[in-house]
Amino acid sequence: MNNIHASLFFVSLIVLILGLGSCTTDPIVIEIPAEAEMEDSLSIINIMETDLCETGVVSFEREVLPILVSSCAHAGCHDEASAQGLKILTEFETIMYHVSPNEPTFSSLYLAVSSDPVYMPPSPRVPLNEGQIQRIEEWIIQGAENTMCNTPCSSTDRSFNNDIFPLIQNHCIGCHQPNNALGGISLIDYESIANLAMSGDLLAAISHEVGYSPMPKLLNKLTDCQIGQIQNWIVEGAQNN
In angstroms, what CA-CA distances link 42 with 26, 57, 140, 205, 236? Predict the structure, then answer.
């Protein structure tokens, strides 16, 4: 390990040890020198998702739950310990207390995330985007069932804007934004995500490597295909494409 790699390793390790488990409004951005980019130990992998949902069916496990846990079910809001407003949004059973199947406009959960102005997540936190709100609405219209099927995925689809950023938005941004930077890490835009990706920390955390806090928190591990998308994007230089 050369001096640049060694320095980067210890800086990243210190950030993870001191930051994980705490919140700050001042995200830490790690500048990655060009010479210190990841070793050529990764390669392109080809994985297709299996056990897919039927066409048009929204997966609660893979689409709705990650959005709610990332954006709502964290310390101080709607995790089990905090339960603000007596709302716990960490699992299907507790989420259903706030959902009327087939009727989004009678579901307090949907009204909270789609109101104008937005009621949840509260300002100044980043609100759900239009696509996320639409998936929650479609899931409720379909009967708000505990669907656990997988969504279509090919690891060869690795566009930052079409594949990687939506994945990060649904699973990570709720805990890693300027107003809630868990571990001092913000993943709000391309630059911050690319920095973490090229340091090796992003892939290590989502792969649950030893010595890293497994991400995303309170959720199942990303599928092999989703991890493959991120790995392939990194291998090709983590481009803003």
Answer: 32, 34, 40, 15, 10
* Euclidean distance between CA atoms 52 and 48, whole angstroms: 10
Domain boundary among 141, 161, 191: 141
Q: How many residues does the chain have?
A: 241
Helix segments in the chain, DSSP class H: 3-19, 65-71, 92-95, 108-114, 130-141, 165-171, 190-199, 201-206, 224-235
Short-list 48, 189, 67, 51, CA closest to 120: 67
Does position 10 have pLDDT exceeding 50, yes or no?
no
Q: Mean pLDDT check: name the lowest of 2-6, 97-101, 132-136.
A: 2-6
96 and 214 housed in the same domain: no
Both tokens of 225, joined, read 């295909």
Signed CA dihedral, 32, 37, 38, 42: sign only: positive
Q: Does a structural domain hold residue 4?
A: no
Tell me how many domains the chain contains. Answer: 2
pTM of the model: 0.78
HEC string of 16-60 equals HHHHCCCCCCCCCCCCCCHHHCCCCCCCCCCCECCCECCCCCCCH
Q: Which residues form the domain of 76?
A: 60-141
